[in-house]
Specification:
alpha+beta; Nuclear Transport Factor 2, Chain: A; 42% helix
Length: 150
């Protein structure tokens, strides 16, 4: 074969390959975004709510605690909360179970409370039971992280 013919064939092949690559990249770049499942949405909402409750407790923000709890849940929280100068909680979600109409979020927690200059540390495992739309804290099972150790 002649060198000029081979050179033209190479250029044409490169152009065809380039066009094919462009077409493939556009065909794969669709805007189909998979929507989150209802379970995923509930899990994310439960994680955010647990963090909101933790922050409100640390800041002694009872109005936020009340807004994010059912009447019974808030009553349970208020009875458990003792006075403290400072509280630092760390939550690690370990399990989430959805049993309609409730969401059960298991949290491993660790806390440090300071009262009159004396620090107390505790750790435990709590199950937050959330209900409603939007989710609200209905009750806490097992070891309540919002109950300052005595």
């Amino acid at each position: 074969m002649d060198f000029k013919i081979m050179n033209k064939l190479m250029k044409i092949s490169c152009q065809i390959l380039f066009i094919a690559l462009i077409l493939v990249s556009f065909s794969c770049g669709g805007k189909d975004v998979k929507k989150a499942s209802e379970e995923s949405r509930l899990a994310q909402e439960a994680f955010r709510l647990a963090e909101t409750l933790k922050n409100a407790y640390e800041q002694n923000d009872r109005s936020t605690l009340e807004e994010n709890s059912t009447k019974e849940g808030y009553r349970e929280l208020i009875v458990a909360i003792k006075k403290f100068d400072r509280a630092d909680l760390a939550f690690t979600p370990t399990w989430l179970e959805i049993k309609d109409p409730a969401v059960f979020l298991t949290i491993s927690w660790k806390g440090t409370w300071t009262v009159k200059g004396k620090a107390t540390e505790e750790r435990g495992l709590a199950i937050f039971v959330f209900e409603g739309k939007p989710l609200q804290l209905a009750r806490i099972q097992r070891e309540n992280p919002f109950k300052q150790p005595e």
